[in-house]
Amino acid sequence: MVPRSCYRVEAAVMIRWLGHISSTGLMLRLACSTALLFTLRMCVGLSWFQVLPSIFIFFLGSGGWKSLHVFSKTIYRDLHAASVLLRVKLNVKKHLRERNTVPKLFAKSVKKYGDKTALIFEGTGEKWSFKELDEYSNRVANLLLQRGFTEGDVIALFMENRSQYVGLWLGMAKIGVEAALINFNLRLEALVHCVNISNAKAVVFGSELTDAMCEVHSSMGKTVKLLCSGEWDPKRVPEGTEHLEPLLETTSTNQPRQPDRSFTDRLFYIYTSGTTGMPKAAIVVHSRYYRMAALVYYGFRMKSEDVLYDCLPLYHSAGNIVGVGQCLIHGMTVVIRKKFSASKFWDDCIKYNCTIVQYIGEICRYLLNQPKKDTEHQHKVRMALGNGLRQSIWEEFTSRFNVPQIAEFYGATECNCSLGNFDNKTGACGFNSRILPYVYPIRLVKVNEETMELIRGPDGVCIPCGPGEPGQLVGRIIQNDPLRRFDGYVNQSATNKKIAHDVFKKGDSAYLSGDVLVMDDYGYMYFRDRTGDTFRWKGENVSTTEVEGTLSRLLDMKDVVVYGVEVPGAEGKAGMAAIADPEHTTDLVKFSRDLEKALPPYARPVFLRFLPEVNKTGTFKFQKTDMRREGFDPNVVSDKLYFLDCTKGQYVELNVELHRSIVSGKQKL
Ligand SMILES: *[C@@H]1O[C@H](CO)[C@@H](O)[C@H](O)[C@H]1NC(C)=O
Ligand SMILES: *[C@@H]1O[C@H](CO)[C@@H](O)[C@H](O)[C@H]1NC(C)=O
Ligand SMILES: *[C@@H]1O[C@H](CO)[C@@H](O)[C@H](O)[C@H]1NC(C)=O
Ligand SMILES: *[C@@H]1O[C@H](CO)[C@@H](O)[C@H](O)[C@H]1NC(C)=O
Ligand SMILES: *[C@@H]1O[C@H](CO)[C@@H](O)[C@H](O)[C@H]1NC(C)=O
Ligand SMILES: *[C@@H]1O[C@H](CO)[C@@H](O)[C@H](O)[C@H]1NC(C)=O
Ligand SMILES: *[C@@H]1O[C@H](CO)[C@@H](O)[C@H](O)[C@H]1NC(C)=O
Ligand SMILES: *[C@@H]1O[C@H](CO)[C@@H](O)[C@H](O)[C@H]1NC(C)=O
């Protein structure tokens, strides 16, 4: 007969082994230990007194102590997240069943909140109650119906002035017309491209953008109708333009007949710069709008009595969904500011009793750069909501401005792999459970950070990252589940580029976020960088391919390589253009003038580097790795360097002294 102690040794080996194969799977390990316990007890006939302590000791010995620690530290966080996910999921199911849409959900808010202030426009001081917003959007809907627009048509919205913005797209949504929300910084080709790819039948533009419209009018389709909102000057607008406001005034405010749209139909389009090329139109369906707004609302424990300060652009999901969505769906008062102002920020918060402020990374740094004043901690703001707050300024931001909670989240408009830092963890942009990591189908997988290529194991499946290993964030796509599907872009081939196969297991497909994150032992995720070329500057993604194309055109098709360089203390990366100019023929004054017309401010290169030739690979691809590493230091780079002085709007020579003042943060970028 085999002595019993042998079984014990075997059990120890088995548990240890199980511990190894599932160093994260605490649940699995607990289950295995329990199963072993029963097996030992029943089959081997050990007494409880022998089994329990040995199992416990083996459990701890196999790394169980650490798991228990992780378990106790994260269980409340995970339970909260699970309840939020479940709640949103059930709500979405309900809305699907009831064939609700964002306008229908808004109608419920109107019923409930009626005369409560829905939107406040800082600047003009206008206040719109839920009723007024409803009536305005009814007018818009009725006017468009009269004009023959029907369900499924697209109308581009190109406005900087805000007060009508929400009412306009909401009115369109009421009759199933889809708005294409166009970045008001766009000009020329990019603007035409955006209108074209959306197949818009009309453009509603703000009078402040009349010049931009005139520039592109001739290259737009002849059948595209133009409507102008704001100050009317018939001599300046393109021919055939109509003035919106007088038309609206004479239109009925009655609820229009709503078409039978479902929760999974298209609501509007938001443009992303994506990873390469021109902006892409990402589809936002009603359920996605709801989900993004609701996850933030429940996840960060907001209330309808909160007042939200939203100074982000409304053509982005952060401003228009995460911010305005709280008003339309959850009945919150939202203060909209046309343009972010660092000096007025906290005064506005006090003026409107704001309790939540929205940010993007840049905003926080601009606020910290302001001189100290009393109002900056006399407000009632309890939470700052946004993404891109750097770890390096995180604590300074919370302590100086007396903001108790940072609600940092991560999520691309078009992606279904959102993360949220629900429990105020310093520096994190979200987390995934370490106890049951498979419940939420996201994962970090190993990637070549420069080429964006996924690194695959011998079986062809992607390799998941452990704690401390940076990897690209991917989200599994379950297409037949409306909650989990990826709605993609208008351009089908662009959609395919963002999808990889065999990621979690053989035969599946997953969305590629294009961002590199790193996870700690507790499952908290920290943003690291974007994979590939696109870099972020002033809160926007700058597509190097696009900028390269434009610069090359302005410079008589010279070879131009664009890349981002790190500037100490600045968020994102500053654009740098290396220009091959062996004969020194570039006219910098003309170049900076042309640049102002051709590119939005954030895409204009901050640094220029003139060199005789740029290195190319055998397949005629530019090599930027070396140049990116050399950066903009004149001590390292022997080529001529220039710096875009934004106060002068001119490129000036970058010498050692200027370099020092940029690095020390004295020189404004
Ligand atoms: C923005 O709209 C307000 C009122 O709607 C108007 O007073 C103001 O002049 C507009 N600004 C621009 C730049 O058009
Ligand atoms: C936009 O569409 C119009 C008509 O369909 C076409 O003439 C024009 O070339 C297009 N422009 C771009 C930039 O694709
Ligand atoms: C802000 O709160 C104070 C006191 O609670 C109130 O008197 C004031 O009217 C509020 N301001 C706004 C804009 O709601
Ligand atoms: C959030 O964390 C900061 C420090 O990291 C702390 O001062 C603050 O009290 C926390 N807020 C909440 C609501 O727990
Ligand atoms: C930039 O890219 C990130 C990650 O893909 C995305 O979350 C964000 O919405 C993009 N921003 C713009 C302005 O396209
Ligand atoms: C998509 O949305 C669903 C619904 O909440 C969520 O459970 C899932 O994790 C999300 N992500 C992916 C990648 O499918
Ligand atoms: C669609 O995307 C592909 C790849 O990104 C691009 O080559 C093509 O020009 C795009 N088509 C349109 C109409 O934008
Ligand atoms: C181009 O390649 C050569 C040879 O590999 C190298 O010495 C040089 O530094 C490279 N130039 C740049 C600008 O990277």
Explain how this protein is built.
The strands form five sheets. Strands 2-1-11-10-12-13-14-15 form an eight-stranded mixed sheet. A seven-stranded mixed sheet has the order 7-6-5-3-4-8-9, sandwiched between helices. Helix 1 (4-21) runs antiparallel to helix 2, helix 1 (4-21) packs parallel to helix 3 and helix 5 (130-146) packs across helix 6 (165-174). The protein has 669 residues and is of the alpha/beta class. It contains 19 helices and 28 strands. It has a domain at 533-664: GMP Synthetase, Chain A, domain 3 (2-Layer Sandwich). The protein is globular. It binds 2-acetamido-2-deoxy-beta-D-glucopyranose (8 copies). One 2-acetamido-2-deoxy-beta-D-glucopyranose (NAG) binds at residues 197, 277, 491, 493-494, 497.
